[in-house]
Amino acid sequence: MKKQLVFLILLICAINSRAQNEDVFKRNNIKNTMLKVVEWQLKNPKHGLKDWTNGAFYAGVFAAYETTKSKEILAALMEMGEKNNWQPGKRFDHADDIAIAQTYIDLYRLKKDRRLIQPAIDDIKRIQIEKSPEAEKNGITWWWCDALFMAPPVLAKLGKTLDDKSYLELNDRLFRQTYDRLYDREENLFARDASYLITEKGEGKREANGRKIFWSRGNGWVAGGLVRLLKELPKDYPQRAFYLSLYREMMERIISLQQADGLWRSSLLDPESFPGGEASGSGFYTYALAWGVNNKILDKKKYLPAVKKAWTGLNTLVTTDGKVGWTQPIGADPRKNFNHESWEVYGAGAFLLAGSEIVKLKL
Questions:
Q1: d(CA 349, CA 53)
Q2: The domain spanning residue 192 has which CATH number?
Q3: Span 48-85, pLDDT tens digits
Q4: CB-based contact 353:57 (threshold 8 Å)
Q5: CA distance to 95, 193, 196, 268, 309, per residue, from 183 (Å)
Q6: Domains in the chain: how many in total?
Q7: Global pTM?
Q8: What tens digit of pLDDT does each residue of 327-358 get?
Q9: Which domain covers residue 53, as residue numbers?
Q10: Is-catalytic flag, 146?
Q11: Catalytic residue among 146, 172, 193, 270
Q12: Among 18, 25, 152, 347, which residue has the fewest nearby CB atoms (within 10 Å)?
């Protein structure tokens, strides 16, 4: 009798789990969850509105607007821009301070009001002719991999919006510098920065299992940035093939590192040493993978199962009121000090970007 009861409980759990998994792919449920995440995060601000964290969050909020056409979300986006006076951060060439301009440009495309993008244009003009002391010190402008989410989409969006290829050419030059320094051609992943590179003698930082350190969120930023870049580049742009090849290489590697729960650990090559699935890296991978399937760049038969597992896993990290938990705190490396209560605005942003592509899937 006891065995039968246990079997019955397990059967009910399996049925409920299957039903839940099916529900998270219903379009109305996706939109409703996105609305809850936006609402919760807007009610729980944590950083200055120009901060890089909000660059990622508001990119997701705009994607939620495109998905739901919510007037309330559009109003919140415009309110953010007005409070910022449509200014990027203070550091004219620092990718973190440029990131929020992605949303300014998206809103400009709706409103056609030049004041929404003029400050960003002025900053980019300075990048074309000046180099800050930080860039001089590091030898390249975008010296950390996260920067490839922050800045390239801004340049590509301006290039497309203003029909000016000089923005695209500037992006090519700066992106290649980062790629040449940080991309590991054996692992098809990016080191967070030069301090994580392994020397020719095999010396350098390593995980507990002896593997190289590849930070999930950092590579997630790159993956999400590549999608946002590719969406803007003209089909006949000469350098598009480079970005497309890099995107495909990374996506093939990323699905090989997905864990049984559909998520990715904060350290990609040492998952056993780290706690459960991390929301921000996993969210960006889900976004990037789903976009590739939707645009027939990634083979649907091969990649759709990974996308479905990832979205199912991501939904287990969202509370009933819309908080995205299991998000690694701000930092520059894989860290263990986070749990289901841990949240950050970029975790919400990554989830919203993922949802904006999942809702388009043809299952």
A1: 9
A2: 1.50.10.10
A3: 999 999 999 999 999 999 999 999 999 999 999 999 99
A4: no
A5: 18, 10, 11, 15, 27
A6: 1
A7: 0.93
A8: 999 988 887 789 999 999 999 999 999 999 99
A9: 42-200+216-358
A10: yes
A11: 146
A12: 18
